[in-house]
Write a structure and sequence with these properties.
The chain has 137 residues and is mainly alpha-helical. It is built from 3 helices and 2 strands.
Length: 137
């Protein structure tokens, strides 16, 4: 889908959002699938702040002088990969499984709604470009 990146930044952003939402869906699904697995630690996926940082262009960039330096914020959408956080059980009660099926189902619904919203926006953007390419007909 590299040609979509050449059209405009909005389409590039929506494409990235769909990729990250898909990854989030995989992690949530894995949590639900392991709800009964003893010792399984819940995983969560966050990317919103990094994506916001990549989209918000303040004109200021951090400078890295060594390959091992970590940039303060991603400077482009391609560098936004999200972060997986593991929540280990610290209570010492039960089977050390930290999955709450109710919470995971809420996360699943929210992620699905946001994914569908991005798809709708992308479809509208493509329809607008198609309309313009056809001379408004």
């Amino acid at each position: 889908m590299s040609s979509i990146h050449q059209l405009d930044r909005t389409m590039q952003l929506l494409h990235k959002v769909l990729d990250l939402r898909t990854k989030n869906q995989e992690i949530i699904s894995s949590n639900i699938a392991n709800a009964e697995t003893p010792g399984y630690a819940a995983q969560s996926f966050t990317f919103e702040e990094a994506l916001r940082g990549a989209v918000t262009d303040t004109g200021m960039r951090s400078v890295t002088t060594h390959a091992g330096h970590i940039p303060v914020a991603p400077d482009s959408l391609e560098h936004v990969h999200g972060t997986v956080t593991i929540s280990r059980d610290t209570t010492g009660i039960g089977d050390n499984n930290t999955i709450s099926v109710d919470q995971e189902m809420v996360k699943l619904s929210e992620n699905e709604i946001l994914y569908e919203t991005a798809v709708t926006m992308l479809n509208k953007k493509i329809a607008l470009l198609k309309y313009a390419a056809n001379g408004g007909a």
